[in-house]
Specification:
Layout lengths: L1 E7 L4 E2 L6 E2 L4 E7 L7 H12 L18 E2 L4 E2 L5
Antiparallel strand pairs: 1-4, 2-3, 5-6
Length: 83
């Protein structure tokens, strides 16, 4: 798991008078990257959802993407053994 301080913005907010989308300054946030075995992924996502959910805009998003290969450089282990 890696946690990085980041700044960004999502879709912004809506201007009540014109209905236009307003994008403000970047907002401080955190980026969390987790690499795990396929069988652990649902539990990891559920844990992130539970910890991050406030019910407000800006709670964040979870993206699940496939990883084609993993290599532990110090031991040359590959695949799930490297995770």
């Amino acid at each position: 798991m890696t946690v990085t301080d980041a700044r960004g913005f999502g879709r912004g907010t809506t201007d009540g008078s014109s209905g236009r989308e307003v994008v403000g300054d970047f907002v401080p946030t955190a980026r969390i990257e987790v690499f795990c075995s396929d069988d652990l992924a649902p539990s990891v996502i559920k844990a992130i959802e539970g910890a991050a959910h406030t019910g407000l805009r800006g709670d964040g998003k979870v993206y699940m993407i496939p990883v084609e290969e993993a290599v532990r450089i110090s031991t040359n282990e590959r695949g799930e053994a490297a995770v």
